[in-house]
Amino acid sequence: MDRPNLFKRFVASYNYVQALQNLPPTYETGEVAKFKQVIPDPVSEQNIQIRLNDVEAAQKKLKEMNEKKN
Questions:
Q1: How far apart are CA 16 and CA 66, in angstroms?
Q2: Would you tell me how many other CB atoms lie within 10 Å of the CB of residue 32?
Q3: Which of 28, 32, 41, 57 is deepest in the core (most CB within 10 A)?
Q4: Tens of pLDDT along 10-35?
Q5: DSSP assignment, residue 39?
């Protein structure tokens, strides 16, 4: 197995996961016993679009790496 290629795939998949995690949450739930719900401040459409673009770029990079592998 090609070690540098493995590392590149790891970095690409890590960036993809980070991009997904950077998307704004719809809500956060607090303690289960109290059924507390916290709704975050409104997020601008521009910030959401930037983060979605990051996800799409990471998906594209992973897809390209998978095509090169096959």
A1: 14
A2: 7
A3: 57
A4: 888 888 888 877 776 655 544 454 55
A5: P
Alpha helices in 1-70 (DSSP H): 3-21, 45-69
Alpha-carbon separation of residue 30 from 21, 25, 33, 36, 56 (angstroms)? 19, 14, 9, 5, 31
**Angle of helix 45-69 relative to helix 3-21, nearest 10 degrees?**
160
**CA atoms in the 13 A half-sphere facing the CB of 31:** 2
Task: List C-alpha distances in Å: 16 to 9, 23, 48, 52, 60.
Answer: 10, 11, 16, 11, 10
Q: Which pLDDT value is given to residue 8?
A: 82
Q: How many domains does the chain have?
A: 1
